[in-house]
Specification:
Blueprint (H helix, E strand, L loop, with lengths): L16 H31 L4 H9 L18 H14 L1 H20 L4 H13 L3 E5 L13 E5 L2 E11 L5 E10 L6 E7 L5 E4 L13 E10 L4 E5 L10 H32 L13 H29 L3 H29 L10 H10 L7 H14 L1
Parallel strand pairs: 1-4, 2-4
Antiparallel strand pairs: 2-3, 3-7, 4-5, 5-8, 6-7
Amino acid sequence: MTPTAFSPADGPSATASPAAAAVSAALARLPRVVDLLAARAEEHDRDATFPYQGVEALHEAGLLTLTVGQRYGGPGGTLSDTVKVLSGLGRGDASVAVLAAFTLLRHAEQARTGSWPAAAYRRLLTESKRGPALVDTLRAEPGGTGELPATVARRNGSNWLLTGRKTCCTGAEALAWMAVWARTDEAVPRTGLFLVRGDSPGVEVDPVCDQLGLRASAGHDVLLADVEVGADAVVGLAGPGGHRPGTDPLDLAWHDLALAAVHLGVARSAQDWLVRFLKQRTPANPSEPPATLPRYRSALGELASTLIGAEELVAGLAARIDRGDPAAVDRAGVAQLLANRAATAAVQQAVTLTGNLGLSRRHPLERYLRDVLSGRAHFPPEEAVLEAAARAALEG
């Protein structure tokens, strides 16, 4: 059996041991994948080209399907497993890590809720055995995302025709499936997720993304022009006040800790580069490498301590969430805020300590800085997280 070959099943696996072995095997392959990603990260960043080879490596290592539920014949990777993988991938190439994150989160959500129709998810699993099958939920729109999306689904017999534009769609050019948030054109609109194959007629990728960092993640716009969606490929269609994707507390907790882990992986790569710099560089005056000087050693110690604290916070909450602790779910938003602040501060400190060299495109440190800053787009604004924390404190 290949690392990614699993057989969809109607019920849970007979035992947990094969699944646990699959998780362990995938994690054991992680360092090799990280090295491969790191070797080509600069090239993809500079040219803003999609990292097909890196995504293929994830697939071959069994990392893209790590969170497929055991009831579907998958490994059933936990949030703790996901955090480990994404932190590692972040050290290699943050763009690939983000691409992996959304696919892993989608499989994990399906394992918990079974929200996708059985036939559609079975097709995704079949495609995931043949090659990389990236998935993303498309919510954002050029005019902002209000209570009702501008993307419209109208009836076409028993099916739907989907029309609209979605923006900042991570992995747009290579998505196997898109879960598109849209509203119906009924007198009282309903909203839901319409499952669209990436190669469906009427789907067009508009390559408008030219962002500061995460440049290989292909966060382009997706245009939908009368894209046909079967009645059996719609999730959660409901009237006013119905469920809005990305608002379930447990889904949010997985998302926040998973993406925070990517940032921490980036920061660890920045620390690794800084350590090499401090050990090897010998300025004309003083004659000793900076690593021997108290000022640099103290700053490096501060940076490392900050990252250790953030990593322990994320890993600890992930383990508690895996054990079903509701208090940990409630704290995940604040944890991602603190972890992202720590990661950003660590990379900025590394740049400060290395001066002009740290900002030179001949070195990866400036890419790490751009990636960690660009990743903020995947999280709610800081003021929203702080407002929620204040409200919880006042009501507690």
